[in-house]
Design brief:
globular; Rossmann fold; 7 strands; about 200 residues; 7-stranded mixed β-sheet; 8 helices
Length: about 200
Amino acid sequence: MRPDLHLVAALVGRDARVLDLGCGDGALLEHLITRQGCAGHGIERSADGFHACVARGVPVSQRDLEDELAHLGAGEFDCVVLSQTLPSMRRPAQVLADMRRIAPRRVVSLPNFGHWRLRAQLALQGRMPQSRTLPHPWYETPNIHLCTLRDFELLAAEAGLRVVRRIPLDEDGRPAPRWVRAAPNLLAAGAVYLLED
């Protein structure tokens, strides 16, 4: 499992009804179900991710999560997870609003396009940056809405969500050193958020 997914799992907690949006290969859901006693379901668009989930025995639907969210009932889950997926959404604000409707706890992780190395690459090379957390060239990236941590926090606030916890990440997806907390929008490669009303 990616290092940031361990942080996500810790924020989800035990014995929760969890919906993992854009669940990829299902590693997080498998961990939540087998090790934390959660009841989980994933939504994954890609055929490869869907088949990997099935191979793990993880309950999953192969659908576009933005379309699927509209069909889920209010309070249907205890926690909704959106890990490294928000920048690839067509309507990020609507996704957050739907997450707010269907569960009281939301865990979101995302890369930070305001990280100093990315800023420096753009300023010094005049090209769209790449990094370990953002490995694709601009013409192959799944990300269509690039945001900084500050941008995300403002969007969350507009959606009526409060940041209960923010864990800044280093470029390997692990908790960043303590000094990064002084300026996470500049110094963190990404972050994991716990959002509540």
